[in-house]
Amino acid sequence: MKIIFFSVFILFFLTPGCALESEPFKGFDFPPLGEIKIPDYQRFELDNGMVVYLMEDNRFPIVNFQAILPVGTIQDSEDKLGLAEITMEVLRSGGTKDLSGDKIDQKLERIGASISTGISRDAASISGYSLKGDFSQVFKIARDILRQPAFSKDKLHLSRINKMAEIARRDDRACGIANREIKRLVYGKNHPYARIIEADTIANISREDVVDFYQNHFGPDGIILAVWGDFSRQKMFENIKEYFGGWPRKNLPGLPGIEVSGKEKGVLEFYTKSDLTQSYVVLGHLGITRDDPDYFTCLVLSQILGSGWNSRFMRYLRQEEALAYSVYALHAAEYAYPGLFIAQAQTRLERTQQALSSMLREIERIRKEEVLDDELKSAKEAVLNSSLFLFDTPDKIISRLVRYEYYGYPKDYIDKLLEGVKAVTAEDLLEAAKRHLRPEELSLLIVTTPEKEEELKNSLKEEQLPFL
C-alpha cells in the first residue's frame, strides 16, 4: 500500500547514518493508539447523478474542493497514448469560454488560490482551495473549466512539447526505469496498466481528438465532489446545485473493465545504461486488490519483509550484509485491479547477484517459517500507527471517504482495516505468504551497465533460480 509506506521510505532515504536494531524501542512503553474520529459530514446526490460530500471545518477561513471523475488513461487508444493526460492538462491550462488560461492563473495568483487537475489509470481529478471570501469566484472558475473548457490551440501545442520533453528525459534516472519496466514485465508491455507514451503517439493527437475525448467521457455522471472548510452547509449546497445541477446527465459508458492475468512463470529482462555506478534489482509478480481477504495480512507481511526500518530486508541486506542502501518489498495493492508484489534493491554493480540471492532467500524464508511474536507485534503496531496518519486531518478524511465511494468500498473500510490488522496471527502470515509470494512467478528486471549485463547473463545461468 503505497500511501501507508511513503513516509517510511522518506524516513530511511534521508537518514543514512542510523543503525538498525532488532528491538529498537526495548524498555519503552508506548500509550495505546488513539481512535480515529470522523467529523460530521453530509452526502447528497444531484438529479444528474453527481454525488456531493460536505464537511464543515471552521478552524481556518479556507475552503477546499476536490472532484473525482470516472476518466482514466486506460481509455486511450493504442495510437494516441497520452490523450487523456493532455486532455486533463489542457482542460486546466486552456482556459474557458470567458477566461484564458493565463488570465485564470493571474486571477488565482492575485488572491492566493489554486485550481489543478490530474489523472491516473482509472480516475481523474480537479481540486483547489481559496480563502473563504474568494471561494465563490474560484469555484465558478472550476465549474467553467469542467463544463466550458476552451482547449486553446497554443496550450495544446505547449502540452505536447512538454510531453515530448518528458519522454526524452524519462531514462535519466535508473529508479524511474525500474519502476516503469517492472510493470511492463508483469502486466505485459501492451496492457493498459503498463503502456507508456511515445513520441509518435503524442504526434498523433490533435485538438479535435482532445475535444472528442472530452465530449465522450466528461459529464456529471459518476462525479464525486467534496467540499470542506469554512462555509455554511446550506448555502454551499445551494451554490453547488446552481453551478452543477443544470449539467445534464449524459449516460456515459464509464471506464472499461480490463482483464488482468499474471504469468505462470516469470521472465528475466535487462535494461542498460552506460553511466550507472549501481544496479537496480527488481522482482515482481501480480499482486492483489485492497478488498482481498488477505490484504490486511499482506500489509503486516510487507512490513516484516521489506517495508519498515526493522524489516528483514533492511536488517539483513542493508545492515548486516551491506548489500544495498535503498531496499524494500511490499504488496502495492490497488483499489480496482490487482497491483504488484515488488521487491527492489539498489546495489553496487559488483554485488548485484549477491543482492538478488539475498532477496530471494528472505522471500523464501518468510514462506516457510512462522515469524516470531516480537516481530509480529512490532509490525502490526507500525501498520496501525501509519494508518492513523491517513485520517488525522479533515482533508485526508473526506478525500478517503470519496475514494472509498468511487471504488465501491464500504465507508467503514478504515475500521475494517484496523480490526483486520489487529487480528493477524503468525499462522495467518505464513498462509498468506504461501499464497501471495510465489517465487516461480517472479519476473526479474535488472537495470545495470552493458558490461555487467553480459557478466550476469552468464553467471545467472548457473544458479537454480525459480523463474529461469
Give the helix/strand layout.
Elements: H1 2-14, E1 42-45, E2 51-56, E3 62-69, H2 83-93, H3 101-111, E4 114-119, E5 124-131, H4 135-147, H5 153-169, H6 174-187, H7 199-203, H8 207-217, E6 224-229, H9 233-244, E7 268-272, E8 278-286, H10 295-305, H11 312-320, E9 326-332, E10 340-348, H12 352-368, H13 373-388, H14 394-406, H15 413-422, H16 426-436, E11 443-448, H17 450-460
Parallel strand pairs: 2-6, 7-11
Antiparallel strand pairs: 1-2, 3-5, 3-6, 4-5, 8-10, 8-11, 9-10
Helix pairs in contact: 2-5, 2-8, 10-13, 10-15, 10-16, 11-12, 13-15
How would you sum up this structure, described in words?
With 468 residues, the protein is α+β, with helices and mostly antiparallel strands. The chain folds into 2 domains: 2-32 and 260-460, 2-Layer Sandwich (Cytochrome Bc1 Complex, Chain A, domain 1); 42-244, Cytochrome Bc1 Complex, Chain A, domain 1, CATH 3.30.830.10. The protein is built from 17 helices and 11 strands. A 6-stranded mixed beta sheet has the order 1-2-6-3-5-4, sandwiched between helices. The longest helix has 17 residues, at 153-169. The radius of gyration is 24 Å and the shape is globular. 39% of the residues are buried. Residues 1-28 have low confidence and may be disordered.
In short:
Helix content is 44%, strand content 16%. The chain is α+β, with helices and mostly antiparallel strands.
Tags for this model:
about 475 residues, alpha+beta, Cytochrome Bc1 Complex, Chain A, domain 1, 2 domains, six-stranded mixed β-sheet, disordered N terminus
